[in-house]
Amino acid sequence: MSEFVDIGVNLTSKSLLRDLEGVMQRAADAGVRQMVVTGTSIAATGQALELCTRFPDRLVFTCGVHPHHADEWDAISPDSLRKLAQHPAARAIGETGLDFNRSYSPHEAQETAFRRQLELAGELEMPVFCHQRDAHPRFVEILRDYRDRIGRIVVHCFTDSREALLDYLDLDCHIGITGWICDERRGLELQQLVKLIPAERLMLETDAPYLLPRDLRPRPSQRINEPAYLPHIFGAVARHRGQNAEELAAQCLANSREFFNL
Ligand SMILES: [Zn+2]
Question: Are 173 and 201 in contact (CB under 8 A)?
Answer without folding.
Answer: yes
